[in-house]
Amino acid sequence: MSELPIDPATQASSGTATPVEGEAAAQSKKGAKKAEAKAKKEAEKARKAAEREAAAAAKSADGGNEDLAKDNYGDITSTTRIAADKVQLKKFSDEHVGKTVKLRAWIQNARMQGAKMAFVELREVRNWSIQGVIAASAEGTPVSKQMVKWVGALRLESYVLVEATVRKPLEPVKSCRVSDYELHLTKCYLISSGPEVLPLGLNAANRAIASFEDEDPSQPAAPTEAVESLSITESGVAPSASLSTHLNNPAMHKRAPVQQAIADIRMTVRKLFSEYLDWRGFVQFEAPCLIGAASEGGSNVFSLPYFEKQAYLAQSPQFYKQFEIAGGRKRVYCIGPVFRAENSNTPRHMTEFTGLDLEMEIEDHYHEVLEMIECVMLHIFRGLKERCHEEIELVRAIYPAEEFLVPEPGKEVRLTFAEGQKLLREEGPEEYRNVSDDEDMSTPQEKALGALVRKKFGTDFYVLDKFPESARPFYTLEDPANPKVTNAYDFFMRGQEILSGGQRIHVPELLEARLRKKGIDPTSPGIRDYVDVFRSAGVPPHGGGGIGLDRVVAWYLNLPSVHLASYYPRTPKRLTP
Ligand code: ATP
Questions:
Q1: DSSP characters over 139-201
Q2: Does 352 contact ligand 1 (Cβ within 6 A)?
Q3: Which atom of ligand 1 is nearest the CA belonging to 546?
Q4: What is the pLDDT of residues 362-376, one digit of tens each?
């Protein structure tokens, strides 16, 4: 601030003022006021200049209109690279804190927090998610306000590549599976954008299916339901969707952590099946799907044009397993699709499912086979518990279920069909007081027996042996001691059938006789070739079984439908996607 000018008169004099002196004093007072005003004006000018200067400095620090972070975000290009290390979310630990990492993930949620900060939830795989924070830097780089705005506006389920520093949040982030760490984003590139509106939000996709009434997807779609845009962790807010909506939106259906867990459990069942049988000396083979005759004689076979002829889709690999045994392979198994042209619209049936089939030579008694199948199933149940604990928990959180009970070793439950019926008659619901030993069980009957077995023997897994003759196909051996029943069994999980099997007839004459008894012409197409195999070389006694993989998965988890256990269910109404 400038000093006031010094008045020489004032400076020289002192004491009482004369009239001349008074005039001079008045004049000097006026001057002082003027000077004061001038000084004030100048001070104001200087203040304004300083303000302008500060604003300019701030602007230049921000890059002005220029976005100093423009290379750190935007659509990915063929030359975009992030040098930082890739770390899987499930492997995050304190040793990563402070380090810069890169991650490819889906935007599960994104929101702005004021103009300079945004939060995103990044999901890497299944439900492995982490909170990302992005805040504008004072210098405008590596993160600018524009970049924050862009990240905060990313669409849900977009796929991004980010670079970030790992930090510990002030409090655990409850909404994310990785709750003890967060990512402070310094780069973010959009690999693939989600749509403006998700047809099926992740929240709905990860909830229990609301209705299993599947519509015909070739018909015009009903209005899309369950459009929502919430974090999957805010469950309870989004509505559930029908099976039809799920299946019509395969990407989102499959992104749901529950579906991924089911898929992983399914693959583990397959692996455990092979693993155990390999260990027991079985060899794997591949059976054809295309066959030239409706071999098992049933009407439930799909036919299709095959050049000038007709072909069929195999209803089971039954004959081929037996051909392998005839071909000198002592123990065989195969895993493959099985087709059934049945118009069965139930939660247990599909028109295509995956069969886990095995067949083996019998040395002394067909119970060797039955025991082998028990062992492989118990290996599967034990293996699931050990290897899929996390997946099972995840599924149970959506589809609650009681623990699947398995028998203690050596206490496996094997009832004859007649014993099962007796149990139903004596201890089952009223309507089963008169069930007969000669007729196959209905599904409700099987379920009621399942409940009784659970209560009485503490297991959800058991066998019914010695099925009535009328209930088994022509290749099943009748019990030599009692031809009213067969050397054949079904396996059950939670009161629902998962396997049919038994001893097969390996003597051609016997086979022909049983074919006739069943009203099938032994010389009919497909059948004659089958019978001839047993004539063409001596075939050892053998037996086996066919397990429905979809049902094993569904009933182990107590899912409401087998369609949820299949990757792409095929039903009378559905051939897509
Ligand atoms: P169901 O009486 O339940 O229709 P099924 O007696 O026809 O079955 P099998 O022909 O013995 O069954 O087939 C062996 C196994 O294959 C069954 O125990 C089941 O696990 C599975 N399976 C059979 N049909 C189907 C189907 N349509 N959809 C899914 N799995 C099936």
A1: TS-SS-HHHHHHHHTPPTT-EEEEEEEEE--SS--TTSSEEEEEEEEEEEEEEEPPPSS-SS-
A2: no
A3: 14
A4: 999 999 999 999 999
Pair of tokens at residue 297 = 């004689």
Q: Is residue 27 part of a domain?
A: no
Say if residue 396 is in the same domain as residue 539: yes
Length of the chain: 577
Same domain, 186 and 279: no
Ligand 1 contact via 549 beta carbon (within 6 Å): no
- What range defines the domain where residue 425 resides? 259-565
Question: Which amino acid residue places its CA nearest to atom 8 of ligand 1?
Answer: 497
Number of domains into which the chain is organized: 3
Assess whether the C-beta atom of 514 lies below 6 angstroms from ligand 1.
no
Indicate the residue among 169, 192, 215 that finishes a domain. Answer: 192
Cα(498) to ligand 1 centroid in Å equals: 7
pLDDT tens by residue, 514-565:
999 999 999 998 899 999 999 999 999 999 999 999 999 999 999 999 999 9
Residue 348 Cβ < 6 Å to ligand 1: yes
Please give the model's pTM, rounded to 2 decimal places.
0.85
344 Cα nearest atom in ligand 1: 27
| In contact, 415 and 466? CB cutoff 8 Å | no
Q: How far is the CA of 443 from the centre of ligand 1 (A)?
A: 12
Q: Where are the beta strands (DSSP E) in 396-475?
A: 413-416, 461-465
**Is 180 inside any structural domain?**
yes
Identify whether residues 251 and 333 lie together within a single domain.
no
- 506 catalytic, yes or no? no
Q: Is residue 148 in a domain? A: yes
